[in-house]
Design a protein that fits this description.
- It is a single chain.
- By secondary structure, the protein is an alpha+beta fold.
- The protein has two domains: 87 residues, no CATH class; 169 residues, Jelly Rolls, CATH 2.60.120.620.
- It has seven helices and 17 strands.
- Strands 1-2-14-10-17-6-5-3 form an eight-stranded antiparallel β-sheet.
- The two termini are 39 Å apart.
Length: 286
Amino acid sequence: MPATALEAAIRAAALMLVQSFVRYFIRAPKSSVAATAAGRDTAANTGLDLYREADYFANALHYHGIVTLFIQIADVLTGPELRLADTVFRQTDGFEDGARTAGRIAKAVKRNEQAKPAGLAADFTALVEKRLMKNDVFRAAARPREFIRILLSRYTKGMEYGLHSDDAFMDGKRVDLSFTLFLAEPDTYEGGELIIEEPAGERFVKLNAGSLVLYPSTTLHRVAEVTSGERRAAVGWVRSLVRGAEERETLFDVALALRQAEAAGDRALTDRLLKIQGSLLRRWGD
């Protein structure tokens, strides 16, 4: 990449970082949000391959002090691993009513099937956890302390999951983030979009097999009715090292700037950003 493009990437990352600090420590007016989005777009448009292991899309929504960071990550799983998923989902006696694992309120609106947590299905969910723990983008966005639960779900014709939010605690552990890892190509089934409510409207998500969306567990969301084919996914819940969504977004911006500084070969800036990252993790980590 030409030096001018690298310089633009560094400047854009620095702008994002400063604005993140301003939002957190000074509580700047909402007019700063547009500049933050512009800075992020500038960084994305440089073409710099910040994360080698996966493409990513990040979008932060700021609305009356609420921060919602959505991350889409492509190619979490390889072709052979997706074929292994096909083997799991072809098991005729390996699935049960998904309502068994739903919370008291969500149970009434959940109509799907989930793999029994044993045998090949258990091996596959362990593989998903392993892949995510090695994924730079996922680690930077989630700061995972632990995976609380990972389930394999399928929806056939007529199945859906009504509007709900995920439980605050599962197995006695705080739930900070949720994810959906799509395991069927979008052209193999109709309907079945993950629909996430936002202040500005609804976000519809239907990704390629092997791609993942990560979002805060506090969001209201649903799965649209499947009208044909079979929707397959791994869904999971994460306890983060960092409790607050706004703090996680700031740390994600730091990680982005750090990668850009490393790519530019700027050792002084890299060391400074590592110091900032460590200080913030000490302040916000639990």
